[in-house]
Each structure stands twice: as C-alpha cells, then as structure tokens.
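Notes from the 1:1 (GR / supervisor)

We went over the backlog. Supervisor wanted to see one worked example end to end before approving the batch request, so GR pasted a single chain during the call. The sequence is below; no edits were made to it. Supervisor asked that the structure be written out right there so they could see what the output format looks like.
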Amino acid sequence: MGAVPQPHVIVTRPAAQAQPWLHGLQALGVRADAFALLDIAPLPDPTVLAPVRALWPTLHAVMFVSANAVQHFMQQAQVRPQPGQQAWATGPGTVAALVKAGWPMAQIVSPSADSAHWDSEALWAVAQAQVHAGQQVLIVRGADEQAQMQGRDWLAQQLVAAGVQVHACAAYVRQAPQHMPAQWAQARQWLEQGSWWLFSSSQAAREWFQMCPDWPWSQGRALATHPRIAEQLRQLGWGRVQLMPAHLQQWGESIECLT
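Structure output shown during the call:
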C-alpha cells in the first residue's frame, strides 16, 4: 500500500498574520505556504480619527474587530485606556494585541480561550450582562479602498436594541494584494493540484472570486475557520469545504483527516 500523500495547506491571511499559522502547521508536519488575499494598510489620512479622540473619555467600551484594528487604531488615534473603560475582543489574537497596546487584562472582555467560536455572538454572550442603556460603545474596524467601512452589523444591532449609543470608525484599509503574474500562476496551479486553502475571512474569498471568476473553483479545496466562511466558500462554488477548529492547538486531528 502506498503512502498517503501529505496535505499542502495555503494560508491566505495578510502577511504579518500568516506567520504564526505557517509555523503552527509546519510544527504539525504539514507542508504550508502563504498567499495573502488581503493586504492591510494604515489610513491615508489619520486626522479622520480626531472626532474619536473627543469622544474617547465618554466611552464605556471599545470593540476591536481584529488585532489589526487594535494596532492601527492605538497608533493613529493616539489615545490611552481610561480607568474602567472596557476593550472588547472576539479572539486571543486581538486580546494579545490589546495587552501589547497597554490595556489592563482586567478591562478586556473576550470569549474564553476554550470557546467553540471566536466571533461577535460569543463576545456578546459575555459582554451583554455589563451593558446598560445610555452607555456609548465604539466599534473599530477596517475600510475598503473606497473608504467604506466593512464588517458585520450584528453586534451593533444588539447594542442598539439594548439602548446603547453605537459609534464606528475605520482604523485601517483592507486592499487587494499586489502579486506578480507568476505568483498568480502558482496560486492557480495549487488550486488545480488539490492544495487546501485556509481561510479566516469571507471577504478574502469573495474578492478573490471577483478578481478571477473563470478559475476552476469546483476543483478547489478549502479550510474555513468559521461556519459563515465555510458557507461563503460553498456559495462561490468551491468543490470541497471543511471546517477547522477555532484553536490552532486543535488543528492536528483535522489536518490528519485531509486527503
């Protein structure tokens, strides 16, 4: 009996965030490469955050959608955590970025480390008991290249229903990567050869499809870190889609099932 082919996994996260995932996969003995489907850039005009600085002392909580949101917002807005002011995070990467930016752990609200999912629903489950009508909450997220803010509105809707005044601002720009033609050719070859593409962003999947609508997506094999991402990939025509655990430490068993 021949040996089972070793899976090849392509990490699609922005370059700076891809490295921990590459190292984690390689530690499991998996051949892994990176191919960013989104790039992260600072705001072209950080002075647009001036109204946020005026609002800052009145905020009960600031919800950061990602570690990128923390890093870029805290650098560009030039603010510091207020006593008792909460920072909300959906996952451990964002929590780590908050601690690095100077937020006390006692003021960070996030799903537990063993949560089944790290998303807005899991965050709301732990934050809602501390929310009261009349409070103000800021949601910090990214914008596209046309300066339009991106992201789900589900959490904002829950806050509004609870009588909270919700503000939002963009802290960074998510833009298409500048790959060379040879890199795109390599990506198509990986797709056709059955490599597994690891997605942590529905937007990345959508924008790639829009850039390359005629690619053989039915041949594609994808790993998704959340059910919503998995559903998006299926809608875009990916042939095989498998859900991955939220925890890097739990990837081993899932990777062993890949053929």
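Supervisor's comment: The mean pLDDT is 88.
Batch request approved.
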